Amino acid sequence: MYVERTYRQWSGKNGLNRFAVTIGQSDLQIQCHGDLQSEATRLLKIARNEIEAYIAAHPSFRESLMPVDVREDAPPIIRSMSAAGRAWKVGPMAAVAGAVAQFVGRGLAGRSDEVIVENGGDLYLRSSKPVSVALYAGEGSPFSDKIVFLVNAADGIGVCTSSGVVGPSLSFGKADAVVAVSRNVAFADACATALANRIAKPTDVARVLDEEREEARLDGLIACCGDRIGLWGDMEIVKRGAFQCDA
Questions:
Q1: Long-range pairs of 177-180 with CB within 8 A, sequence gap ≥ 24
Q2: Sequence-separated contacts (24+) of 23-26 with Cβ below 8 Å
Q3: For residue 138, what pLDDT is reported?
Q4: 113 has pLDDT over 50
Q5: Domain 15-240 is of which CATH architecture?
Q6: Are strands 228-233 and 26-32 parallel, antiparallel or unpaired?
Q7: Of 75, 83, 126, 82, nearest to 102 (Cα)?
Q8: What percent of the chain clears pLDDT 70, i.e. is strictly above it?
Q9: pLDDT (tens digit, 9 = 90+) per residue, 128-147?
Q10: Strand locations in the chain (E)
């Protein structure tokens, strides 16, 4: 089922060429220098073909909600999804959007020094200048568009979001949004899913953030549920509403 991605209207003008690439369920919005739509389409086809071929031979890779081990000779995108799922104790498909965004983004980075690939709320960012990202937690959240933060994307970085109430993705929690920041985009995607599963009520926000801050596996984390929000990490907050944060 297609869900209109109204948050894309927030993306400001930055002098980059902007275009969409859609194949099957993959719906990417890309920003970069030059006309790279054909190259982005080629890269997306490669990523999808590798994933679909692997699933055809190993159906459990798509169906499992638990980690799935793969052989060392599996395609790199498959190995990255498997590793991310294993790290966060979720199925490998929890990392698919981030893995695809990273595959396409890294492929384009050789031809454009600035690249933004957005895939269903999961971002691959590469830029010589810090990139600003706005929080979207659904129309009913008091925190949507009230938090804007800068991330260092000089070497490429992932900013991935999962929700128990927004969008069609499977979630076992009630978080309005969990945003994970990591250099590994598949890892960030699986993380956002896993942590969103662990937030069933507003009072879970502080506990989950504290636990992950101690683990120190991420570059940054934002989580909100109901009237509670928490955040920490290597990011500069450039816009913040008048509310209390748990972290």
A1: 177/135, 177/136, 177/137, 177/138, 177/141, 177/143, 177/222, 177/223, 177/224, 178/221, 178/222, 178/223, 179/135, 179/220, 179/221, 179/222, 179/223, 180/218, 180/220, 180/221
A2: 23/48, 24/48, 26/100, 26/119
A3: 86
A4: yes
A5: Roll (3.10)
A6: unpaired
A7: 126
A8: 89
A9: 999 999 999 988 899 988 89
A10: 17-23, 26-32, 115-119, 122-126, 131-134, 147-151, 157-162, 177-182, 220-225, 228-233, 236-240
Contacts of 139 (CB under 8 A, 6+ apart): none
Q: What are phi and psi of 155, to 5 degrees?
A: -105, 10
CB count within 10 Å of CB 168 equals: 9
Q: Which two tokens stand for residue 164?
A: 């128990």
In a 13 Å sphere around the CA of 9, the CA atoms on its Cβ side amount to 4
Residue of 210, 211, 231 whose CA lies nearest to 221: 231
Please state, in angstroms and rounded to a whole number, the distance separating the CA atoms of residues 241 and 247: 15
CA–CA distance, 224 with 241 (Å, rounded to integer): 13
DSSP-derived 3-state class of residue 185:
helix
* All residues at 6 or more sequence positions from 71 whose CB lies less than 8 Å from its CB, including other chains: none
